[in-house]
Design a protein that fits this description.
Elements lengths: L6 E2 L15 H13 L5 E3 L11 H15 L5 E4 L5 H13 L4 E4 L12 H14 L4 E5 L9 H10 L3 E6 L4 H12 L5 E4 L6 H7 L3 E2 L6 H12 L3 H22 L2 H9 L17 H14 L9
Parallel strand pairs: 1-8, 2-3, 3-4, 4-5, 5-6, 6-7, 7-8
Helix pairs in contact: 1-2, 3-4, 5-6, 6-7, 8-9, 9-11, 10-11
Keywords: Lyase
Pfam family, one: DHDPS
Protein name: Dihydrodipicolinate synthetase family protein
């Protein structure tokens, strides 16, 4: 990438058949739908892709299918998180070799009893950077349970060559983004937020340059980022108010299941199956999700019809 990546970088859901097997053809349709949503990049194999429920063989298939099918139409970010340094490095090398524009990784984590010290966290990111030449996005999320203080993140940006993008989705994300941008300066190339953009306005106020949402309504959220960064704050606020009910319902009630339910309803994929121990949405929650999605006329709800 010659220019810094900004805008909206949604996470692609992983489609399964009703029997739980991965659906590679459905994956291609998901990617095509997302490109038609006008995204600036696509992230695969993230938490909202159910990456923690995929085998290594399935990951390899989905990586190959996704990168071959997108074929450079938009940048693809491949999530490579793992507790083991060697596996994380191998995933990064394989992703770059197949055409990934960026990799994203959480710090190594495996429950509260196995939280590595700062030097080990730094060491894993350094090992990945030494093995590749594409940018690394640090995912700072509560799921890991590994604290990533601003001084550590700034040190990583300054001392690890390819660490330059940051997805901040912890409580009080705006304050952390502001502190990171102030302390890191030019080394913080891509400060992003996450959590389905539920804190997007505050995070834009803090200086973030983009958001990593789900694939539910990126075409509706993208104008918020673009208008805000162009100085059209009133337009951004108006669009934020329009999107917020669906953002909130997804973030607080649905999680990763929302995009799959809407994409099934819209004919993008044939099943909204999630792998156990995850459970389907209740009919009550699903009905509200579809109502709010229809009110916004989201692309995913009509793309395959």
């Amino acid at each position: 990438m010659k220019q810094p990546l900004t805008g909206i970088l949604p996470v692609a859901p992983t489609p399964f058949f009703d029997n739980g097997a991965i659906d590679p053809e459905g994956m291609k349709r998901v990617l095509d739908c997302m490109i038609d949503q006008g995204v600036d990049a696509i992230c695969i194999l993230a938490n909202y892709s159910e990456q923690f429920l995929l085998s290594d063989e399935e990951r390899a298939i989905l990586t190959r299918v996704s990168l071959e099918h997108v074929a450079g139409r938009v940048p693809v970010i491949v999530t490579i998180s793992h507790f083991a340094n060697d596996i994380t490095v191998r995933r990064a090398v394989e992703a770059q070799a197949q055409g990934a524009a960026m990799v994203m990784m959480m710090p190594p984590y495996h429950g509260v009893g196995l939280v590595p010290p700062e030097h080990a966290v730094f060491g894993q990111f350094k090992a990945v950077s030494d093995a590749i030449s594409i940018p690394i996005m640090v995912q700072d999320a509560p799921l890991s349970g590994v604290p990533l203080g601003v001084p550590l993140l700034v040190r990583m940006a300054q001392e690890i060559e390819n660490v330059s993008y940051f997805k901040i989705e912890v409580p009080f994300a705006a304050d952390k983004l502001a502190a990171l941008i102030e302390a890191g300066g030019k080394d913080i190339i891509g400060p992003f937020d996450g959590e389905e953009a539920v804190t997007l306005l505050a995070d834009l106020d803090a200086g973030c340059t983009g958001t990593m949402t789900s694939a539910l309504q990126p075409e509706k959220i993208a104008p918020i980022v673009r208008d805000y960064r162009a100085g059209n704050i009133d337009a951004a606020l108006d669009q934020w108010r329009l999107c917020l009910p669906l953002i909130n319902h997804e973030n607080r009630q649905c999680g990763l299941r929302a995009a799959k339910v809407v994409m099934k309803e819209g004919g993008v994929i044939g099943s909204d199956h999630v792998r156990a121990p995850l459970q389907p949405l209740s009919p009550r929650t699903r009905d509200r999700l579809l109502q709010l999605s229809r009110e916004l006329d989201v692309i995913a709800l009509r793309w395959g019809k």
